[in-house]
Specification:
single chain, alpha/beta, Glutaconate Coenzyme A-transferase, eight-stranded mixed β-sheet, 25% helix
């Protein structure tokens, strides 16, 4: 039997020009950084491989690491020939990939995380692509951009999105070239190439990526990066995430290229070998993050919406929390001692626990379950979750939302379109204006000393990533929550439902919008308990509810 555990120079030397490489990675989690760096070193030394096209389930990078490190070096080359293009859901943690895309150095296609993860499964099953309703009336729709987010992508159309009819329902067919090679990452391989992920913080999409690479008619090569080698048969069958027949080569990585997250090399709390209680010193350490108090107001206001669902459902609420202010909601729920009733589920696969933020986003402390990325996105697209809270960059008069894309800023869609498109209730949460501001709480009311100069409520969003029209079509409940105002989407448009105490409706709200919202006839003030430093003390009512 061919030896699989070999020196990295062997598989890297076999990768040919003009190939398709699938690479796993959710920021640094499951990112095979050693494989990425060594392939780039070969290109620098030999000039090959050229014109590779990369497909990822999320983003194999954080600033200065992995693919962002490569992109920084390539950006300085006048005529780089290494990367032809990328199909990648998220670019927010790779400033140099963004620069390459904006400067038309590589093609870019921005499919959402769930769509890309599903697509690997569909290709592994021998199907022509992925069919879904997600993306209709957004930038993913071929009647708009068809997911191509720069001119090179539009011209070359390496990845395609087509409009089709399924049983009279408009759907999209997502198609991309099948991978010739894949770079995946696990923790341990046995001598036969069976892979376990005992030291990883998430499962990612590595099994589906390997299967898609091995699917007929053109079976490719799967290369796995690991930290450890163990004796054959010593990995329990239940611990094997990718069986050895799917693996061609196993490469042992130096520790410096195998971090668990963006700022953490190795911590047993992130591999769930230790599951500490989310109280006391650990909680204080994790949640003592730098945030303006008005951001806490927003997170609290979303939590109150989740409590309303809890009271109606009389069972724990399952919610997805996006990056930014929404990620703070799990901390607020823990602070209020209601986290057992508000169950968070992350797009990286963790159920429950406390989500980390910044370059560590995707990691969590003390979840009670862990799913693969394709499995976890079924909960979003299928509306299995009760609600989602996601951030926003722009909102327009039609209720459309753009979370992350501007002419000089292409973060990509992330998991946003699938989560917002499938959740029965979505609470978009963010600051009312953008830019530097000084907003604080005094005497149970909001004080705006210096407001941000960037208007986020605009006539038309730059890119439609969430369609208000589609949400209304399928009967979804949509609210837009800021520190000073709460809006709700209805057939006639955005309705202003609540304003913060201490806020002037004309000066602080309507004058800071590029359109005039409908003002609710029974406009009310936001709850005053949002605007003080003490806890909101909502646990007692919930405890009484569950005693009935």
């Amino acid at each position: 039997m061919r030896k699989k555990i070999i020196d990295i120079s062997v598989p890297v030397s076999q990768i040919r020009d003009n190939c398709i490489i699938a690479i796993s990675g959710f920021n640094m989690a499951t990112t095979p950084e050693f494989l990425i760096i060594e392939l780039f070193r070969r290109y620098n030394k030999e000039g090959h491989p050229k014109n590779i096209f990369i497909i990822s389930d999320a983003l194999p990078a954080v600033p200065g690491r992995a693919l962002d490190y490569v992109a920084e070096k390539l950006f300085l080359e006048s005529n780089q020939e290494f990367i032809k293009g990328v199909l990648m859901p998220f670019l927010g943690f790779s400033p140099f990939l963004q620069k390459m895309i904006i400067n038309e150095k590589i093609e870019y296609y921005g499919w959402p995380i769930g769509i890309t993860a599903y697509w690997f499964r569909e290709i592994a099953s021998g199907r022509p692509g992925l069919i879904t309703k997600i993306g209709i009336d957004t930038f993913l729709d071929p009647r708009r951009e068809g997911a191509a987010l720069n001119n090179l992508g539009k011209e070359n159309a390496t990845c395609k999105v087509s409009l089709i009819q399924v049983g009279g329902i408009e759907c999209l067919l997502y198609q991309a070239p099948e991978p010739n090679y894949s770079f995946i990452r696990a923790s341990t391989s046995d001598e036969m190439g069976n892979l376990s992920m005992d030291d990883e913080g998430l499962k990612g999409t590595i099994l589906s990526i390997a299967q898609a690479t091995k699917a007929n008619p053109h079976q490719g090569t799967v290369i796995a990066q690991v930290k450890w080698i163990t004796r054959y048969g010593s990995i329990h069958p239940r611990k094997v995430e990718v069986p050895s027949p799917l693996i061609d080569y196993v490469i042992i990585s130096p520790a410096k290229y195998h971090w668990q997250s963006g700022t953490i090399e190795s911590d047993p709390k992130l591999s769930y070998k230790i599951l500490p209680p989310l109280t006391g010193e650990l909680f204080n350490k994790i949640t003592k993050i730098s945030m303006k108090y008005h951001e806490k107001v927003i997170a609290r206001r979303v939590l109150l919406e989740l409590i309303k669902i809890l009271e109606k459902k009389q069972a724990p609420v399952l919610v997805n929390l996006g990056i930014g202010i929404p990620a703070l909601i799990s901390s607020i729920a823990t602070e209020e001692e209601v986290s057992e009733y508000i169950v968070t589920i992350l797009e990286s696969g963790q159920w429950g626990g406390l989500a980390l933020s910044g370059n560590d986003f995707g990691a969590a402390i003390s979840p009670f379950a862990l799913s693969t990325i394709p499995d976890v996105f079924s909960n979003f697209e299928g509306g299995i979750i009760d609600a989602a809270s996601l951030g926003f960059l722009e909102i327009d008069k039609y209720g459309n939302v753009n979370p992350s894309i501007l002419p000089n800023r292409i973060y990509g869609p992330g998991g946003f379109p699938v989560i917002a498109g499938g959740a029965p209730r979505t609470f978009f949460a963010g600051s009312f204006t953008g830019g530097t501001s000084k907003i604080f709480v005094l005497n149970n009311s909001l004080r705006i000393q210096n407001d941000g100069i960037i208007k986020k409520f605009v006539e038309n969003v730059y890119k439609v990533v969430f369609s208000g029209n589609q949400a209304l079509k399928y009967g979804h409940s949509i609210k837009y929550i800021t520190e000073r105002a709460v809006f709700e989407l209805k057939d006639k448009g955005l309705i202003l439902k609540e304003i913060a105490p201490g806020v002037d409706i004309e000066k602080d709200i309507i004058a800071k919008m590029n359109f005039t919202p409908i003002v609710n006839s029974d406009l009310v003030e936001m709850d005053k308990k949002l605007f003080h430093e003490d806890k909101m003390n909502i646990k007692e009512n919930i405890t009484q509810l569950f005693k009935k």
